[in-house]
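task queued by scheduler; priority normal; single chain, no ligands, no partner chains; default sampling; output format set to structure tokens
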Amino acid sequence: MCRRRIDRACVICALFLLNACAGRYSGIRLYEMDLRLSLETERAQASVGEPITTTFVLTNEGPVTLDVCFEPLEQQIQFHRAGRILPTPSAFVDHAGCRGRSAIRSGAEHRWTEEVMIPDAAQGADELLARVTVVDPISCEGTEGCLTLTLESETIRFRVTPSDGPAN
């Protein structure tokens, strides 16, 4: 615990000296220490083929405002059954870039919603997990070649039931 505080203090101090005029900070190391991802759903159960609305919540638990890029956004909802990941489609960004910066103040949240269609392969799932890749904007050369960090939420209980079949 003491070691982490020393590392955080050194990182914050160094970034302060480098970015004193900006008032906002970035850096993969700070993201690892201070950003937390959580996932919320509109309900706790859905059938295969049904859409559900998911809310991604990125919280800055650190002492300073963080400058983060989300565009293009790489995110994934994983369906789990008995602790194992079920193979389902996900969004993938080949080369992370920075085309849209956001500042997340200390103690603040950045929230967004996505509609997810429950795929056939998720049948029988009992948990959901979210993954999001954030980009460090100061590591980029223009809009390419950026350093990234993939954040993972805690799993939440969510049950996927078989489809009711076509309506008569």
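post-processing summary
- The mean pLDDT is 79.
- The CA atoms of residues 96 and 146 lie 6 Å apart.
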